[in-house]
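Sequence in, structure out.
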Amino acid sequence: MAVEQLAPQVTPVVPAGTGESLLVVRDLRKYFPVKRGVLARVVAQVKAVDGVTFAVSRGETLGLVGESGSGKTTVGRCILRLIEPTSGSIAFGGVDVLQLGSGYASLNPRMTVGTIVSEPLIIHGGMNNSERADRVAELLEKVGLSPEYRKRYPHEFSGGQRQRIGVARALATNPKFLVLDEPVSALDVSVQAQVVNLLQDLQEELQLTYLFIAHDLSVVEHISTRVAVMYLGKIMEVADRRDLYADPLHPYTKALLSAVPIPDPTVHKTRILLKGDIPTPLNPPTGCVFHTRCPIAQFPICKDVVPPLIEYKPRHFAACHFAGAPVPAEASSTNSAAARI
């Protein structure tokens, strides 16, 4: 393909779904300073998230995937204000999230389940002790746990049960939006299915909206409405789930999907093998950050010009100068490949 066959010159827009946008993230950046010397001077910046833009529609699940170090968890933490973004904007229901307060809690091993689940209710106030106890019992039942478990401690539960406790606590204040960061990554496959089914049931019952951050592309395909693919702090592709899995446009997405195992030992799948490891965000490549591993990169355009995130098909966005071009591959069995990125 000739260098002149570049991406169309279209003004990039916010990748969004079909419904009303509940969360809108624009040009989000999070740089971590690297300090050295006696005076702790800043000598460099780790660009964990570098210009991420997307929207999440009310009632949908946006899956966020990418290799370790791609920045997907940092995006989730910035949205929740667990860490402060370097720049950009985050609007939730039209409200500037960066002007709100922040706070964080986890499953404290010294706290009972009842105390853990009721903590958000105490922080937000408006309930007496009896009302909080009733609400905790209701939440535990909603996630499939007995209210009698409220007096137990986290170490007395299995991994799947602890995930349910975390979901119960997240639902305590009747949220509209949940950030789910690797909610099933450490669980057995059967337990993963139980937690995913629980999340889907709760979403339908309570009209919840999810940002689902995960490595497992099979789980993401099952639960997501749309999927966004990240690489080295940037979004490479965003599309409706069916469109992305059936017809990916970015070579990075194609490589990731080619590694997903097929549950049939007799079927062999063409595998796209990428060269090398993901570069360091301390010194990311110029131009397209994927060009150092891209099997269809052309120079100098891919090295010198940052490809914008452009809508090539309805609600299907890609950041690639040669989006949709064929990618060379090697034939191999995916049954020996890991399902994780």
